[in-house]
């Protein structure tokens, strides 16, 4: 039903569609088990989301497979958006300070937040979406070297055949001392990223990577791949410092296994 509605309603009205659905869900799911840090509402549970393809369970792909409490009924934020928001809010100045920010394939809830930051120079870009500021190919970013203080590019790399080029482009366009957050679904059991850049059939792609448009499943070597283009990578695990992230009881319905890949461009 949701997919059908989305396919017949033009993209610029999807936000409105979401708003109407959220109003109904907010009543249905009201409660006090979880509190969404983005919309501030309380819920007895969140809405399950994520693919159920076998490989995602088999390879234990964090951030890609089915999660019971993933999607906020009140503002339609995903668990990963709440995590990135809390990280930016508590560990960076990005949501308080005027800075130059590039948001690739923007998550709408985070976009709304950024647009409210006073003095921010904020640009959204995407290769396919029409509701962004610029059309942007992440493997050939049209901005000059050393342009951005912060770049967000979440759940994009697994779709991009030349992901090293994309990472290098994000690195190039960051200012020295700048920060990029580059999240992706990631296997906790595979040592090496499993990828295939040939033209494999869709069914095989789903069987092997868990989604029809994915080129790979990243593994424990993801961090090294990011570092190979020059980034200093910190793998931040919120469950080790839970105080700002909803505490041990997981009040904000985050994914306990999801790390944040914080990529810094060395200052000098
Ligand atoms: Zn919410």
Describe the overall structure.
It contains eight helices and 15 strands. With 268 residues, the protein is α/β, with parallel strands linked by helices. It has a single domain (2-264), classed as Rossmann fold. β1 and β2 form a beta hairpin. It starts with a helix and ends with a strand. The model has no long low-confidence stretch (mean pLDDT 93). It binds zinc ion (ZN). Zinc ion is lined by residues 36, 38-39, 41, 72, 74-75, 77.
Keywords:
268 residues; alpha/beta; Rossmann fold; 15 strands; 23% strand; binds zinc ion
Secondary structure layout:
Blueprint: H1 2-8, H2 14-28, E1 30-35, E2 42-43, E3 47-49, H3 54-58, E4 61-62, E5 67-71, H4 79-91, E6 100-104, H5 108-115, E7 121-126, E8 134-135, E9 148-153, H6 163-173, E10 174-181, E11 186-187, E12 194-195, H7 202-209, E13 216-217, H8 222-227, E14 232-236, E15 260-264
Parallel strand pairs: 6-7, 6-9, 7-8, 9-10
Antiparallel strand pairs: 1-2, 3-5, 4-11, 10-15, 12-13, 14-15
Bound molecules: zinc ion.
Residues 36, 38-39, 41, 72, 74-75, 77 line the site of zinc ion (ZN).
């Amino acid at each position: 039903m949701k997919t059908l509605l989305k396919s017949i309603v033009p993209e610029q009205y999807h936000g409105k569609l979401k708003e109407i659905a959220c109003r109904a869900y907010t009543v249905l799911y009201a409660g006090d088990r979880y509190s969404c840090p983005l919309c501030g509402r309380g819920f007895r549970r969140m809405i399950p989301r994520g693919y159920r393809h076998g490989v995602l369970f088999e390879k234990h792909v964090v951030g890609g497979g089915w999660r019971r409490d993933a999607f906020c009924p009140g503002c339609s934020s995903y668990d990963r958006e709440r995590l990135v928001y809390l990280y930016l809010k508590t560990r960076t100045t990005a949501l308080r300070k005027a800075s130059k920010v590039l948001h690739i394939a923007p998550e709408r809830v985070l976009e709304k937040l950024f647009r409210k930051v006073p003095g921010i120079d904020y640009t959204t870009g995407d290769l396919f979406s029409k509701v962004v500021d610029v059309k942007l190919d992440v493997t050939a970013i049209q901005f000059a070297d050393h342009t951005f203080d912060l770049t967000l590019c979440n759940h994009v790399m697994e779709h991009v055949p030349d992901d090293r080029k994309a990472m290098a482009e994000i690195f190039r366009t960051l200012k020295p001392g700048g920060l990029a957050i580059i999240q992706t679904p990631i296997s906790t059991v595979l040592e090496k990223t499993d990828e295939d850049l040939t033209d494999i059939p869709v069914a095989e792609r789903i069987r092997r990577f868990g989604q029809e448009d994915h080129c790979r499943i990243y593994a424990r070597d993801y961090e090294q791949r990011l570092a190979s283009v020059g980034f200093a990578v910190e793998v931040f695990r919120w469950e080790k410092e839970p105080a700002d992230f909803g505490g041990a009881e997981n009040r904000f319905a985050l994914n306990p296994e999801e790390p944040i890949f914080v990529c810094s461009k060395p200052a000098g």
